[in-house]
Amino acid sequence: KKSVFFFYNPGLLELSLGKFRNVLLNQTNPVEAVIRNIASNVTVIIFQVHAQQSDVVISFDKNPSVNSSGTGVDKGLVSILQPQQSVCTWYLRSLDASQVLSTAISIPYMEKDPIPGGCNLEFDLEVDPNIYLDYTLVDIRIKFAPANLGYTRGANPPSCDSGTGQNSRWRLRYDVYQYFLPENDLSEMVLMNHIRKMSEVQSIKANGIKMLTLTTDDKTNVYFSSLPGQGVIYNVIVWDPLWNTSAAYIPVHTYACSFADLVDNCSSLSKLSTKVFFTALAILGLFTCFFGHRFWKTDLFFMGFIFAGFFFFVFITRITGLGYDVRLILTAVAGIIGGLFLVASWWRFGSVLLCMFIIGLVLGFLFSSAVFFTPLGDYRVFRDDVVFWVTFSSVALMIPVLFFGCPRILNILASGIVGSYAVILAIACYVYTSLAYITLDLLRRVLNDYFSRAYTNVPFQTNDFIILSVWTMLALSGVTVQLRRERSEVPFPPHPYLTWKRERERRSTNVLDPSHHIPPLRERIHNKLLHIKEFFQKEQPAGERTPLLL
User: Fold this and answer.
1) Is residue 131 within 8 Å of residue 140, measured between CB atoms?
2) CA separation for the pair 453, 223 (Å, rounded)
3) CB-based contacts of 91: which residues, under 8 Å, 6+ apart?
4) Exposed, middle or buried by CB within 10 Å (0-12, 13-18, 19+), for 522?
């Protein structure tokens, strides 16, 4: 691990180009950051400061104004150098009364390097290299100002609207990068160490994940799926294909949650109702994973619960404004009704094909969700909802169709895979894992009309590999145990209603059958109650016990 040294001076912070410095900021004493002896071939310096959760103010002057300062957790300024200029100065302070840990760096660029935010027409700064980030529980949006071409010291900047040819800013390209912080780690020092990897062009290319490339014709805003509790850093590299030069914007980070909230903050995201719901589902799923085919009615209840609960939750969320806890309780009730209905349907009609179609759909939906959980899901063609849902449904329906001729195998596979995944969803309520987003991203797309525009890339780190191994082990063990135990048994139990009906007819016609003489149920219950009543009665005095004389 690298050693980290803190530097704090109430008045002055000496910086070197391209070198990070950690600094403690407060509200009352602004820190003056200075760079000296700037080389003459440097035309632009981008100065930036980062904090984890507390806003900092960065400005050109001691008294900040709207057009000369920026406020936020990830902010930067562009200094356009004048001829003979060799010193640059900025001022830093926090908005919190307490001290705030931050890290600062200044990055130099030459005359042929593009200038991030050089054609800003939307934000307050004249040249704005910042990336603006907004998040909800569903998605994250980043937005930035277009760049301009580089130019020499003292020259006028190229016009932003003089034309669209190869000699204008329209030739520039924008590469958007994503970087995931270590899972389950919300510490400040981890952020400070990792944000350095996303600040300069070469380190961004070496460590970040390139998500897409924008041209000047595209809108400079991009959407990503939200990952509450997981730290993510975004940055943009603007590239000039004519000179083959690049420059980086100011990296921006988010955890898609609040550190300040007392309830549902970054440290405790899952609600109690969610934990109870999925823990109960995991217990039933674990039983189904190993004993689903043997206990056929329990298996039917589990699959019916999932099928009915999913569609009811979607329905009630789309048409009502009920709170999350209420919707979850109603979903549990609907799932129970759906599970009992599937069991009752089997008992009355005994249709294996109908039951197996529902079970195959549940497995098919999970399989199709896993397919789109891969990088395949971020292909541009699937931004179209029609293309996505037709493809998704086709993949989901493929499972029951392929296993049409072997329903027992389908049921054992479904109970093993779906049952074990229920355990993974319960684990996700207590420990972050990206595997939960296999189904969560599908739910988001169903519930939100604009989620199709979001890139759904997620981290896959040590935690995820361990939990994936647990899922694989559970699924393989459950399927193997059931296949070995059921290989000599009948594929499915006989139709329960017909069996009961035949048994009743047999008892009513065969007088030699002892069961024919069994009293009716009402009489048996009455006799049992009398027996219990006699057990609690006190014994009466017997009187004289002398035998009678004949």
Assistant:
1) no
2) 6
3) 30, 31, 32, 33, 57, 58, 59, 60, 61, 62, 64
4) exposed
Encoding tokens for residue 170? 């329209």
Per-residue pLDDT at 399: 93
Average pLDDT over residues 540-550: 51
Could you please report the per-residue DSSP string of 399-432? HHHHTTT-HHHHHHHHHHHHHHHHHHHHHHTTS-
Q: Rounded to two decimals, what is the model's pTM?
A: 0.85
The one-character DSSP state at 27 is: S
* Helix (H), strand (E) at residue 341: helix 324-349
Model confidence band, residue 544 (pLDDT cutoffs 50, 70, 90): low
* Entry field: residues in the chain: 550
* Domain spans in the chain, listed from the N-terminal domain onward: 12-155+168-254, 272-486
Strand partners, 248: 237
Q: For the structural domain made of 12-155+168-254, what CATH number should be given?
A: 2.60.40.10
Q: Which range among 178-182, 295-299, 424-428 shows the weakest confidence by mean pLDDT?
A: 295-299
What is the tens place of the pLDDT at every residue in 303-331?
Answer: 999 999 999 999 999 998 899 999 999 99
